[in-house]
Amino acid sequence: MPVSAYLNAGLFVVAAAAALFVAAGTVAIPGFWAYLAILAIVMIVSFAMLDPDLLRERMRPGGMKPPLALKVFSLVLFLHWIVAGLDRGRFHWSDGVPGWLQGICLFTVGFGYALALWAMRVNRFFSSVIRIQSERGQYVVTTGPYAIVRHPGYTAGILIIAASGPALGSWLAAALVVIFSLPFLLYRTVTEDRILQAELAGYSDYAARVRWRLVPGIW
Questions:
Q1: I need a surface site. Which of 68, 76, 146, 156 has the fewest CB within 10 A?
Q2: What's the rounded Cα separation, in Å, for the pair 219 and 159?
């Protein structure tokens, strides 16, 4: 991997920390440190255990820059970190999240990232955009979490999005990130499933065997 990839990952964590702590006006919020530790561990584990070709695909899908939709998604993440910082450190608009719930949501964020890493570990075609990767010899992956649901990456993303705001102790941050991110993830799930069934050999048979897109027994 190029040095720039490691620098970008480090800068992402630093930027998240800056968004939280500068907005809060203090670094004395333990929940923020726990949240940032999860992000840092995810970055380290990603580089240690994932296929370098997959990491390159995720950073520059098909050799192209990430599309505008992903940039907007990242912007929403940063905005919800800023709102959480302002809420917890300065204005206390909606920072009454119970400590026990913050703990559960921190665990959920960590679990969501672990699920995403598991999916990426078994699926070297886990791109950041919806596309058939013919040049990389894409095939249907049926092992790991894909034996349970067809889109475990989106399941992981929804868990992280739903838990992130309460994990940071801010109901307002939770509302912001859920309202502006959840529809995007659900749209991506439906669109990607439709394209895979139409264009990827063997996917329709796999979909007939593994019925659930995101949540076993529900959808």
A1: 68
A2: 15
> CA 25, CA 82: separation in Å to the nearest integer?
11
C-alpha to C-alpha distance for 57 and 127, rounded to whole angstroms: 6
Per the rule left: phi > 0, alpha: psi between -120 and 50, beta: everything else, 145 is alpha
Q: Which residue has the tokens 């919806």?
A: 130
Q: Exposed e or buried b for every residue in 33-68, given b needs 16+ CB within 10 A?
A: ebbbebbbebbeebeeebeeebbebbbebeeeeeee
Separation in Å, CA 50 to CA 28, 38, 43, 46, 135: 34, 17, 11, 5, 19
What's the CA gap between 50 and 143, in Å, rounded? 16
Q: Is the pTM of the predicted complex or chain greater than 0.90?
A: yes
**Helix axes 30-49 and 99-122, enclosed angle (nearest 10):** 10
Instruction: Name every residue whose Cβ is closer than 8 Å to that of residue 24 and which is 6 or more positions away in sequence.
Output: 32, 85, 86, 88, 89, 90
Instruction: Write out the two tokens for 106.
Output: 């921190």
pLDDT in tens, 50-99: 888 888 888 888 878 888 888 899 999 999 999 999 999 999 999 999 99
pLDDT tens per residue, range 163-219: 999 999 999 999 999 999 999 999 999 999 999 999 999 999 999 999 999 999 999
Task: Report which of 153, 170, 162, 179 is spatially closest to residue 84, judged by C-alpha positions.
Answer: 170
**CA separation for the pair 72, 199 (Å, rounded):** 27
Q: Kindly report the CA angle at 118 between 195 and 155, in degrees rounded to 5?
A: 50
